[in-house]
Protein: Quaternary ammonium compound-resistance protein QacF
Amino acid sequence: MNAISTTTGTGLAWGVLIVSGGFEAGWALCLKASHGFSRLWPSVGFVVLLAASMVGLSYALRSLPVGVAYGVWVGVGATATALLAIPLFGETVTVLKIVSLALVVAGIVGLNLAGGGHA
Structure:
């Protein structure tokens, strides 16, 4: 059986893990926008999203292997952060950056297909 299971618990864990990876991107972007915690609302966003991200990762780890789950969580967060930083902070887009992000996504898919099952 592959990592995307039809069972509710594991399927839910994967969904929570992906959302938590999105929260990871959110806290990273808030951290940048906070300018060293000198701006209130981005700093608050950082704390809230960091907590939500960790709670979600913790939930997913109840039923997913740590190596796979952590790799997917970091990959989703890093990819989303890099993509969102382009319009939000004017970061440059290069062919190498796009190819590298595609490789991260391919790695996430590979981990998902190879990881499977309960912890």
